[in-house]
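Practice problem: predict the structure.
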Amino acid sequence: MKAIRRFTVRPVLPEPLRPLHDLARNLRWSWHTETRELFRAADPEGWRPADADPVRLLGSLSAGRLTELAGDAEYLGRLAAASADLAEYLDGPRWYQEQRAAGAELPSAIAYFSPEFGVTAALPQYSGGLGILAGDHLKSASDLGVPLIGVGLLYRHGYFRQTLSREGWQQEHYPVLDPNELPLDLVREADGTPARVVLALPGGRSLHACIWLARVGRVPLLLLDSDVEENAPGERDVTDRLYGGGSDHRLLQEMLLGIGGVRAVRTWCRLTGTPEPEVFHTNEGHAGFLGLERIRELIPTGLDFEAALEVVRAGTVFTTHTPVPAGIDRFDRGLVARHFGDEGELPGVPVEKILPLGTETYPGGEPELFNMAVMGLRLAQRANGVSTLHGAVSREMFSGLWPGFDPAEVPITSVTNGVHAPTWVAPEVFRLGAGQVGEGRAHQVLAGGPVADEASVQTGTPRRWDAVTGIGDQEIWDLRRDLRGQLVTEVRRRLYASWRKRGAGTAELGWIDGVLDPSILTIGFARRVPSYKRLTLMLRDRDRLRSLLLHPTHPIQIVVAGKAHPADDGGKRLVQELVRFADDPRVRHRIVFLPDYGMGMAQKLYPGCDVWLNNPLRPLEACGTSGMKAALNGCLNLSVRDGWWDEWFDPDFGWEIPTADGSAVDEDRRDELESNALYALIEDRVAPRFYDRGAGDLPDRWIEMVRSTLVNLGPKVLAGRMVREYVERLYAPAAQARRALEPAVAQDLAEWKARVRAAWRGVSVDHVETVTGDAAGGSAELGATLALRVRIALGGLEPDDVEVQVVAGRVDSGDAIADAQTFPLKPAGGQDLEDRWLYEGPLTPDRTGPYGYTVRVLPAHRLLATSAELGLVALPTEATGEGGGVLMR
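Answer:
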């Protein structure tokens, strides 16, 4: 019989064990080894069946076992120590508090919005890299004491669980998640009733959501859940699953995340006394509507829409994670219009003001679509990509929003992602390092906190990481062999379970005991399976791959995992192609595909591999943090120069797969060229180095690469480094810009922008001439100073409203300026009879060869974050002509 109602019965802990409750409800246990070991000791046999989840484990402990633990003095001593450590962690000053005490102007709080969060496998609210990055961001913010408030949605079905059919076809399963069985607490009002946020929907309907709290160390993570009794069935399903449903469903999810998320933050701050956020960080465009809700909040204070927009922009940071337009959510403008205005959400905010924020006003854009990333950029004064290369790709991709500017000047910077080392470093690796610097210092180093020599973060390796150089070759090799052996055991267990679900009987599966070999070079490849990540590039020449797998003296073995989106049949076909190859009895002991890739699997996979493979189509990988996690465990990278590997590649850390992205070749030919390069690298360089043994039968050169990876690459890939960059480069400036915009100042700024935009058609560069300097003949000597005189029409604006610049640098055959430098020109007189202003200034070329310059006019205001902020620029009508440019040889 089926139950008509479900509820959770919570265990009652004996008084001496009460601290276990707080330890289990704070997700710090997911990255704190001592706390996890405390729970494991409570029931060593039940730890794995509980999926290493303390909440589930406590719910499964018998009354007898609880009584036994309550009388165990040694266990209670460990419990007291863990409880005291958590209290000190939560309340003690950390890096952020030290910075504020030293006088740094930092925000009182930051709200961080993301559609998914990968904090722990026990809270499956993520699909891939975006969510894992968001989880690592929260954990590192907690370690550093950054006052972050996380905001997301609680998906009752999570993403999906993946199994395989007998034929190797991906199958999806959506288990129901009961929040009462997760490490969550319901946020309640002072009277004990559940706190609610409500959104108005067309037709007089409403969308209600409760708020669940996940404690991520010091950081509260607020998750909105629409599965409440006040909602009709359609609205209850809004938060049913991650990235599911059609356009209307996704739009409601993103409205709830952005608009409802701001209201949830306000509720949390009201109930707890937490300072209101001064900065709002939008992790991808899914939460972009948060800016509109904040505009709605400000309009009743007397600000008009434009002034409120300026206030919101000043305190908003937007991070883009996709280098491909197809990865951006876009909605029909009519659908968006139906959900806003006086008949829907955000009354008082005119729909005709909302829709232009998401309009694709660039060449090739579709004006009938509402682009969430475009809105995110327009609602944020500061934006960034997630690696240096991705920043450049993003500037190019969105350059149409800033017409007249070179892509390099588009105001999108980059903060390269990092990973939370305490989560991803294997305990065995941690213990080896702690043996050199001490356990407490090792925790601090992995968390990305301050180091002994702060300048060394920029110029080299922090001294505490140098301690790894003192670890002996034998110790490093024994560690690598131990981790590889653990991976072999884990792979066999998971492979057996997978084949059982595929319908195989026990008698068919004896061969699994021989899968993988702890002494063989092990390559890992695990990620989502969109086509650009090229899961099956390794299968391009199957005979050649078989020869690598079965090489008589230098064999390799490969562990592969990954999920295709449920709607992506092309991705599913790639999975099936890989699975069918791995099912071949000739090679199935050397290559495996493990279904249901997630955090639990990843934490075993990264440390156990010797080489991490990544072969996307360059430059379509925004960052690719899986290789960072592998590197922190001494795994070497074998990757296309994309994402983070493009900026931090070094032959001491691994190998670069040559790419054909600059060649005029079709996709098929490109795959052929790059797969051949991959095979050659493995065959000629990677495998020989692994098997090249020196004194003591040790691969000396391989071990040295492992050591270099840990010492020199390790400090760079930390999420602590990433979060500190966000604080110093984006959060602090955003808070300062927001504080500067008092209502009257914001109104003045909005009116100034409106005046500049209205007058800009009349701004022009009318005349440029060289007053002194021998440039008439098309050349000048190095070091010579050219005196320039420029006449500018300002269209009714004043000189204080603009900046006039010379832009100069090397020129190519088409006279395009590269490596440009800018020099200001100063007003040299009032208006002439033709209403033009005179500007003058020097230009001193600093390099030989083809050289050129042009002149431009930009809006100028002390509250602009960059001169490109308005997307307005006036250039000479001709790039050449009198004074329009000069070449020097």
